[in-house]
Amino acid sequence: MILKYLIEKEFKQLIRDPFIPKLIIVLPCLVMLIFPWATTMEIKHANLSIVDNDRSSTSRKFVDKLAATTYFNITDVSTNTDNAMKSIEYGISDVIVEIPNEFEKSIMREGKASVLFSANAINATKGSVATSYLDAIVLDFSNELTFENSPTIVSAPGGISIEPYYKFNPTMDYKIPMIPALIVLIMTLMCGFLPSMNIVGEKEEGTIEQINVTPVSKVTFILGKLIPYWIIGIVVFSLAMAVSLLLFGLSPVGSVVALYGVALIYIFAISGLGILISNYSNTLQQAMFMIFFFIVVMLLISGLFTPINSMPQWAQVIAYLNPLTYFVEIMRSLYLKGSTLHDVQYQIYALVVSFVILTTWAILSYRKRG
Amino acid sequence: MKKFISFVRKEFCHILRDKRTLLILLAMPVVMIMLFGFALSTEIKDVKVAVYDPSVDAASTRITHQIDASKYFTITRMISNTDEINDLFINNSVDMVIVLEENFYNRVLHEGNASIQVIADGSNTNVSAMGVVYLSNIVSSFQREMAQEKMEAAIGVGLTPVAPIMIETSSKMLYNPQLKSAFNFVPGVMGMVFMLICAMMTSISIVREKQRGTMEVLLVSPVKPFSIILSKTIPYLVISAFNFLTIMILSVFVLKVPVSGSLSWLFAVSTLFILVSLTMGIFISSVVSSQEVAILISSLVLMLPTMLLSGMLFPVESMPKLLQWCSYFVPAKWYIECVRMIMIGGLGIKYCLSQVLILFGFEVVLVSASIFTFKDRL
Question: Residue A298: how many CB atoms within 10 A of its CB?
C-alpha cells in the first residue's frame, strides 16, 4: 500500500520539472525519426581521380567503364600524379586510379598490364571496399578485352556468377536493421540515465533523510524508485515502435507480446543498474559520469555498431557479460527475423540473470543510514 | 588578478575533492582509446558461413577451402538440405549461407556458366554487404587460378591456347597501410572526450552553484561575474590539455597511430575546439536552472549528435542531404575532420583552414549568446 504512495510521489517529482516529461516523449521520436538515416555504414559512392598516362583508346575505354558505374564518380582526369594527390589531400577524391604508360601496348603485345590504385584509407573500410569494387571492374574489363580479341576461342573457364540474396531485407535497406538497434539505444539511455540521477538527487537535496526516518523497508523503497522507470521504459518502447511503424512501415515480424516481455526484462535490468550507480554516488555529477561511462562502453561493445565477431577474444568476453549484447540480439531476431522465444532462449536467460543480479545488488547496497 | 586566481584555486579544490569524478575524467579517454583501438573494428572477421554443396567435386571442395581459409569467413557447418537454411538464420547460428550447384566442376571448367548463390542475413546489413564483396574477390581469384591451370594443362598436351588478357591490379592504402580502424576512431574519440568533459562538466558545475544557492555568494563578491564564469572553465581546460596528452601518448605508442602532421597545430586546433565546448557548457548553464536538466541536455541532446553525426562511427557523406546539413551544426564534425587531416593525413594547416574558421565562428556565436543570456543577478 505504501508502495502506491511512493510511486505517486515519484511521478509528481518527475512531472514537476516540465523538461523531463517532454524529453521522455520527444527524444524517442526524434531519435527514431533522424538516426535511422544517419547510422548507415553503406558507402554509396567513392570519388575517383584518374591519372591516365597512356591516353590510348583502351585506357579511355577503361575510364568510360568506370564512369558508367553508379558506385564511382570521376572527379578529375589528369596526367599528373601530383594533381591527383592534391585532390586526395583536399578530400575531393577518395581513390587515385593510375593507368601506366604503354598500357594499351603491353595488353596488345603481352596480354598483360597493370593498374595502380591508391586509396585514402583513413577510413579503412571505405578504402578496402572501394578497391575491392575496382578489382572486380578490372577483372570484368579484362574479360571483355579477351572476348573482343578472340571471341571464338575462349580458353578460360567462364565467369562464375555470384547471386547474392539478402534474407529478411531483400532490398538491403540500411535503415531497417538500425531500427531495433536504435530502440535499444533509446531505452538504454532513458532507463539508465533517469534512475541514476534519482536517489543521488535526493541525497544532494537532503530529502533522502525524510524517507530514511520512515518505517518504509528497503525493498519497498527501491521498488518505489524502480517502478516509475519501468513504466517510462514501456512508454518509450511503445513510442519508438509506433514511430518506426508510422514512418518506416516496419512492424515486428515476431510476436509483439514476446517483444514486450523481453523489453520489460531488459528495462528491469538497466534501471537496476541506474539505481545501483545512484546508490554508490554522492553527487549528481559523479552519478552522471559513472552512468555515462557504463552506457557508452556497453553500447559500443554490444555489437550494435560493430560486429562482435571482429573483436579480439578478451573483448568478446566483455561483450558476453554485457546485458545489452543479448538484448540487441533478441531484438534483431524477434523484430526482423521473426524468431520465436524458443530460438533466443539462452539470450533471455542471460537477461534474466543480469536483471536478478542488478536489482538484488541495488536493494542490498541501499543504506538507510546516510 | 589575485582574486581571479583564488577563484580558480577554489574550482580546483572542488574537482580534486571529488576523487571518483576526477578518476573517471582521467580514465575515460584511456578506456575509450583502448576500446576503439583494440576492441572495435568495422572490418568483418570470422563471419559464420554454412555451405550447401550438392556436387562435392574438385572445384567445389577447393572453393570451400579457400573461403574457410580467408580471415573474413569461418565455415561453421556443411548442410545437406536447403530446407535447413531458414532455421539457421532464425536461431542466429549463421550469418551467410553459400549454395553451390550440382556438377560444379564441369560447369566451371567446361561450360563456363557456374553460379554461386549467396544468402546473407539482411538484418545485419554491414556484415552482409561487406561479406558479399569479399566473397566475390575470393571467387574471382579462384577463377583466375582455374584459368591458369587449364592453360598450363593445354600447353602440356601440346596445344597453344589463346591466353586471356590479364590486367593486374595493385592497391596502395594511403595514410593507413595496415587498414586499422583506429586511424578513423582516434580523432572521433578526441572529439567526444573534449565535448564530454568540457561541455558537461562546466554546465553542471555552474548550475550546481545556482541550485545550491552558493552562486549568490559568488555574485556578491568583488570579482566580476564574467571572471567567475571564466574561473570555472580554467580547471577543465587544464584537464582537457592533460587528456590531450594521454590520448596522444596512447595513440602513438600503444595503438601505433602516428602523428604525421604538426603536433603544435594539432594542439592549437584542439584548444580551439575545447574553447568551443567550454563555451557551449557555459551557454547551457545560463539557460537551465537544475542539474538534472543540465545533465540531460549535455549528455543526450549534445552527445547523441556528437556520436552519430560527427562522422566518427558513420560516414557523413553517405547520409541524406538533410542530415548532412544538420551535421554542419555539430562542431565536433569540423574538429574531427581537422584532426584527421593534420594527425593522420599529415597535411598542413592550410588544408583545413575552412574547418578552423567554422570552429572559430561557432566560438564567436556561442560567446555572444552566452554573454547575451548571462544574468548577473539571480
Answer: 21
A158 vs B: CB within 8 A:
yes
CA atoms within 13 A of residue B340's CA, in its CB half-sphere: 29
On the CB side of B329, how many CA atoms lie within 13 Å of its CA? 9
Q: Tell me which residue has cell 556443411.
A: B78
A and B: number of Cβ contacts within 8 A: 380
Residue B139 CB partners (closer than 8 Å, separation 6+): A160, A162, B63, B116
Confirm or reject contact between A149 and chain B (CB < 8 A).
yes
Residue to test with chain B: of A61, A109, A166, A186, most B Cβ within 10 A:
A166
| A162/B139 CB distance under 8 A | yes
Which residues does chain B have within 8 Å of residue A333's beta carbon, measured at their own beta carbons?
Answer: 90-92, 123
pLDDT tens profile B312-335 = 777 787 788 888 888 889 999 999
Give the pLDDT of residue B245.
92
The answer to whether A309 contacts B205, with C-beta atoms less than 8 Å apart, is no
Rounded to whole angstroms, how far apart are CA atoms B246 and B31?
11
How far is residue A222 from each of residues A7, A20, A199, A278, A367, measured CA to CA in Å?
Answer: 10, 21, 9, 11, 11
With a cut of 60, say whether residue B2 has pLDDT above it: yes
Residue A269 reports pLDDT greater than 90: yes
Which residues have CB under 8 Å from A364's CB, separation 6+?
A: none
Using CA atoms, how far apart are residues B163 and B148, in angstroms rounded to an integer?
9
Question: Helix, strand or coil for residue B319?
Answer: coil
Digit-coded pLDDT (tens) for B147-158 = 778 778 777 777
Amino acid at A360: T
Distance CA B291, CA B304 (A): 19
Phi, psi of B100 (to 5 degrees): -90, 165
Confidence check on the interface: ipTM exceeds 0.85, yes or no: no
Query: Can you tell me the distance from the alpha carbon of A316 to that of A309, in angstroms, rounded to the nearest whole number?
Result: 8
Cross-strand pairs, B121: A167
* Cβ(B131)–Cβ(B72) below 8 Å: yes
**Cβ-contact B27, B250 below 8 angstroms:** no
DSSP assigned state of B134: H
Backbone φ and ψ of A97, nearest 5°:
-110, 115
Rounded to whole angstroms, the Cα distance separating B333 from B336 reads: 5
The Cβ of residue A159 has, within 10 Å, a number of other Cβ atoms equal to 17
Query: Is a pLDDT exceeding 70 seen at residue B25?
Result: yes
Give yes or no for a contact between B140 and A139, defined as CB atoms under 8 angstroms apart: yes
Look up the pTM and report it: 0.84
Contact A309 B18 (CB under 8 A): no
What cell numbers appear for B329 in the block? 551544426
At A352 the pLDDT is 94
Q: Is the pLDDT of residue A242 over 80?
A: yes
A247 touches chain B (CB under 8 A): no
